[in-house]
């Protein structure tokens, strides 16, 4: 879908037609099919993200999603909603906009630089935990991709909910690389497995930072790319099980990936287990805790999942 791009210069102001609240533009941070997102500052000096678009109905759908996801079963999903209004430009045209929490962080691929391969599973598990709550609430993310994710304080955050679709409906917005229909791996029906496929593609992108074409045999292309990445070797079976449809929900995939991490970090002999050895990895981000004769793994990352 064509991007809706608005060019508002730094220092420009967007004033709500109905509320009179003014937001000063700091910089443009992105553009999509539904509008352009700017970093802005409120009159009180708080920093937010402001999304400006043309289609009022689509913008309101996103606003409603943000409000709905403010708390799903006690878990915060997506940025917090702040404000919604219309803006009238100098020519007299009216455009809808809404304001939300500005999530400051790093793109997934940038965050992973210098990290061990365990972090691929850690970030995937965080993402699956949020998807688990979303799916339980009756929705599918839809346009799940690295462009819609940031790592803030070692935690994956969603920054765009424009593609969220009610379960059972047709996916309304997608990006080909992450879309199972594009790879001839399933339909575009909004169901949990649609998002799970996108998670496998995000993992695949971590092993192959440069996106690749599907070629004449899409499924074979995916299998070859998966097999050729040493970073993805520990997760090959889990990803293949998703592709085959043997993993049906986020909880199952999360459990499988957690099992891979446990196996990778298990002490190699019983002597270390008896000693209650506590091995710290990457400054405590991954800890293997041995208690008695059993080994328990704790992935502890600033308010991490579970």
UniProtKB/TrEMBL annotation:
Gene Ontology MF, one: ATP binding
Superkingdom as given in the UniProt entry: Bacteria
Annotated Protein kinase domain residues: 23-262
Region of interest (Disordered), residue spans: 258-281
Keywords for the protein's UniProt record, in alphabetical order: ATP-binding, Kinase, Membrane, Nucleotide-binding, Transferase, Transmembrane, Transmembrane helix
SMART domains recorded: S_TKc (SM00220)
Membrane-spanning segments: 286-305
Annotated Pfam families: Pkinase
InterPro entries in alphabetical order: CDK, Kinase-like_dom_sf, Prot_kinase_dom
PANTHER family attached to this UniProt entry: CELL DIVISION PROTEIN KINASE (PTHR24056), SERINE_THREONINE-PROTEIN KINASE PRP4 HOMOLOG (PTHR24056:SF538)
Name of this chain's protein: Protein kinase
